[in-house]
Every structure is written in C-alpha cells, then in structure tokens.
Write a structure and sequence with these properties.
Elements lengths: L3 E11 L12 E10 L3 H6 L8 H14 L5 H16 L3 E8 L9 E8 L2
Antiparallel strand pairs: 1-2, 2-3, 3-4
C-alpha cells in the first residue's frame, strides 16, 4: 500500500522545555504527520467514517499539547504518537515535531520519528 494521508504545518501551543522560564510559558510547536492508509475504501464509498479524519486528528494533537507538559520534545513526540496510533487505529506514521525559536540561529529544531505496528 502506498496511500498516505498527511497533515503539514499544524501549529499547537504547549508548555515544553527544561528551563524554569520555559515551564511558565506556552511555546508554539509545529507538527507534520504522514499516515499510511488504504484510501480505496473511502474513495469508493465517499464516506468520511472510512477515512483518516485529518480534522479530528489535528484537533486531538492540539488538545493533547494543551493537556500535557513535558520537558523534552522527544518525550512529547513519542507519547503523542503512541496515543494517536491507539486512538485512530493507525498502522504506520511518521511524525515531525519542530520547536521554532529554540535555537535563535536556526529556523527550527526538532525530531522526526516513524513507527509501525508489528
């Protein structure tokens, strides 16, 4: 299967960081997701319930970031991806998480992880 559903540039605010000042503010994070999904069924039926609902997934990510506090973006990325895979029955996902402004001389820093159900 080579079908994917993707979300690019999703912005969400989160309390994240190791420094004391970071634990007192919300910082913007940017997410990209690429999710494998067989799109033939939703295409044949034109039925939203058969798709990966990118609006529901986007809203879930935004809410998750507001409800959880982590020091490391690595921890946020890993836990969020585990939660997304369980909630939306995802079988293979690549998540890129950027933290703009973390390094003043860089546009963004971040992590990219890819997980697949075994």
């Amino acid at each position: 299967m080579t079908d994917t559903v993707f979300i690019e540039g999703l912005q969400a605010d989160a309390v994240i960081g190791v420094y004391d000042w970071e634990k007192k503010i919300k910082q913007q994070l940017v997410f990209d997701l690429v999710m494998n999904h067989d799109n033939r069924v939703p295409a044949a039926t034109d039925d939203l319930s058969k798709t990966l609902d990118y609006e529901a997934i986007s809203n879930y990510i935004t809410a998750y970031c507001q409800e959880h506090v982590f020091e490391l973006i690595e921890t946020l990325a890993e836990r969020l991806l585990e939660s997304l895979m369980a909630k939306f029955a995802l079988t293979e996902v690549e998540l890129t998480l950027r933290k703009p402004g973390a390094v003043p001389s860089a546009r963004a820093v971040g992590v990219k992880i890819k997980r697949r159900l075994k």
